[in-house]
Amino acid sequence: MIDVINLTKKFGDIDVLNGIDVKINKGDIICVIGPSGSGKSTFLRCLNCMEDPTGGQIIFNGVDIADTKVDINIHRRKMGMVFQHFNLFNNKTVIENIMLAPVHVQVKDMKKAKRKKLKDDPAYNTTKAEIIKNARENAIKLLERIGLADKADVYPSTLSGGQKQRVAIVRALAMNPDVILFDEPTSALDPEMVGEVLDLMKSLAEEGMTMIIVTHEMGFAREVANKILFIDEGKILESGTPEEFFSNPKHPRLKEFLSKVL
Amino acid sequence: MGNFEQKLNRFLEIFIEQNGYVKVLEGLKNTIIIAVLGLVIGIIIGTIIATIRVIPKYKVLPRILNGICSFYVGLFRGTPIVVQLLVFYYVALPLMGLHMTGVQVAIWVFGLNSGAYISEIMRSGILSVDSGQMEAGRAVGLSFGTTMMKIVIPQAVKNILPTLGNEFIALIKETSVVSFVGAADLYVAFNYIGSNSYEFMVPYLVMAIIYIVLVLLISLGIKLMERSLRKSDRRN
Ligand SMILES: Nc1ncnc2c1ncn2[C@@H]1O[C@H](COP(=O)(O)OP(=O)(O)OP(=O)(O)O)[C@@H](O)[C@H]1O
Ligand SMILES: [Mg+2]
């Protein structure tokens, strides 16, 4: 689904990513681990071009989105992203956070279809009211799933960290993405809230969602991932299944890293 | 003190019997119209400029637009408002072949002028919003402009509301020079009363009091607004 070919990224003169190659298939749960400053976040942020790659290709559903000529906004709709610090929209209620992008995007598509008189396009026959109604129903379903339906109309600042992150995850889900990128989703949480977020991620994994997760939660990686990547100094030094990875690490840097974190 | 009483009577005579109050009300109306519409235009222009100035500048077009905005801001902050009024009225309008009333000229010049100041206020407001808000908007596929309009600017405006209130007070005070282009504001009204009574002490004193009351009322409005915003913060 995503084919990363020789991805490089420089910040000014500093090489942060030095040629990353990886293939991500539908349903993959990939955990990315590595020391601080090794380029994990940068790698993840290059995947949806939050950082423009300096070189290489990112083939997503057959299109090289690293090419600055493609309309990245269209491809980002199909790539959810979950941040360490949640980044819920502070000026929107919980349900508005979830509905905002789906409504905006569908209304835009509808207007375009009407302008171009694309009568066969399903977007042509819908109305704004209908789009909002569907988005709301879907948002409520998602909130029920995470047990926060009663929080639909409050602002994010009243939620706990764990609640915020779960809302952020269903906000990403609301766009029906093909893949969700997670950058240390539990690192900013109090320890007692880590579990609820990891449980939600596990349930997504069981449903077959494709996920790429930068994490320091080795137990979670071991249990849920089908592939782990070890990044250091902007390179993938080792990749493999959790069993290979933890019981038989080969690269000396990985051995050293694991001896520190386990 | 007898002298002052005489002056007061003279003022009241013109104010009430010779329709001086009509002029004053007209002047008050114009002062407020110029300040309010100037503020509205200023906010629109200021928001556009501030947005342009925070666009990442890797590409050529944002750089050019940014240059134009810097020039605009420098121009309006670097020249006296009276000069701007005169140039707009006696140079720009004739060159464009347009005609406007004094009040219209004042509205536009104060709007353009406060746009330059508000752009700086708005920019600091935008920069005070956590960059994660923009990232989250972009990550769900919204464009820079949409994220700016729906997420970042509403939060920025909330942060700078008190400062915008101060800008409004500054506008109210600065409009007292619009008679340079023939707009009949409070100054013109009281000057009229003074000229007709050959007595300026009381008219200008009353004028000063009206300005002070206006400013106090606006300050009170800002305080109430801030308080209700703080309350909504707590509730949120
Ligand atoms: N916007 C930026 N400008 C300049 N340098 C940057 C920028 N973002 C990251 N870097 C640098 O790139 C390197 C890799 O950063 P990155 O955030 O990808 O590391 P990381 O593996 O995610 O680390 P951590 O585990 O601490 O989150 C670091 O040296 C960092 O200082
Ligand atoms: Mg990181």
Describe this structure in words.
The complex is a heterodimer of chains A (262) and B (236). Chain A is of the alpha/beta class and 262 residues long. In chain A, 40% of the residues lie in helices and 23% in strands. In chain A, the strands form two sheets. Chain A has a six-stranded mixed beta sheet with strand order 6-7-8-3-9-10, sandwiched between helices. In chain A, helix 6 (191-206) links the parallel strand 7 and strand 8 (210-214). The longest helix of chain A has 22 residues, at 94-115. Chain B has 236 residues and is mainly alpha-helical. Chain B contains nine helices and no strands. Chain B has helices at 2-17, 20-54, 60-77, 81-96, 102-127, 131-139, 144-174, 186-197, 201-235. In chain B, helix 5 packs across helix 7 (144-174) and helix 7 packs antiparallel against helix 9. Chain B is elongated and about 75 Å long. The N and C termini of chain B lie far apart (59 Å). Chain A binds chain B through residues 48, 50, 73-77, 79-81, 83, 85-92, 100-101, 104-105, 154-155, 157-158, 168, 171-172, 175, and chain B through 130, 132-133, 135-143, 146, 150-151, 154-155, 158, 233, 236. The structure holds adenosine-5'-triphosphate (ATP) and magnesium ion (MG). Residues 40-41, 183-184 of chain A line the site of magnesium ion. Adenosine-5'-triphosphate is lined by residues 11, 16, 34, 36-42 of chain A.
Describe the largest sheet of chain A.
6 strands, mixed
List the secondary-structure elements of chain B in sequence, H or E. HHHHHHHHH
Radius of gyration of chain A equals 19 Å
What general outline of chain B do the C-alpha atoms trace? elongated
